[in-house]
Structure formats: structure tokens, C-alpha cells
Recover the amino acids of this structure.
């Protein structure tokens, strides 16, 4: 899958940020089991190859669940989404920290 670049990447990051801000303001409206998020951040020391490996691992993990977009429960010939599955934004940003 090609990576977004240029203006498209900037637009995608903006939409991700807007979606997250919307979530923070309105999460009290979600059912109680959905009122938390699984955000985390960490600073790790990596080589470019290690950063690429982690990015590949994350993409691979998420890819197994993305196929559910094309397989709604209405298609019995294919595996269905589990009961209670809802759209969830999966956002990962790996980038080197530059000196300020």
C-alpha cells in the first residue's frame, strides 16, 4: 500500500487530529465500554531500519482487521465482523525527534 505524501498526507493528519479532538469532547456519549481510548506514546531509540520494521509490524497487524470493511455481517459466505464491532481509528506516527 503506497504511503500518503504531500498535501494528501497533510490533509489525512488534519482529519485524524480533528477526529481525535471530536472523540475527546464527545466520548461521554459513547457506551461505557467505549469511553476510554488506547492512546500511548513512547520515545524509543531506533535505527531507520528498526523504525521501518515497527511500522511494517503495525500495518500488518491492522491489515488483518481492515478486511472487515469489505465483509459486513450481511455476507454470510465470508467471515463477519464480530458483534459489537464499530469503526475505530488506528493512528500511528513514527518519526525522529529533531533538535529544536
Amino acid at each position: 500500500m503506497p504511503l500518503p505524501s504531500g498535501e494528501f498526507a497533510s490533509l489525512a493528519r488534519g482529519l485524524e487530529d480533528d477526529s481525535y479532538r471530536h472523540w475527546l469532547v464527545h466520548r461521554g456519549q459513547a457506551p461505557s465500554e467505549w469511553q476510554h481510548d488506547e492512546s500511548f506514546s513512547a520515545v524509543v531509540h531506533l535505527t531507520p531500519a528498526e523504525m521501518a520494521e515497527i511500522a511494517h509490524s503495525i500495518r500488518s497487524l491492522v491489515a488483518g482487521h481492515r478486511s472487515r470493511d469489505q465483509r459486513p455481517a450481511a455476507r454470510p459466505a465470508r467471515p463477519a465482523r464480530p458483534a459489537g464491532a464499530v469503526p475505530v481509528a488506528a493512528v500511528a506516527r513514527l518519526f525522529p525527534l529533531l533538535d529544536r
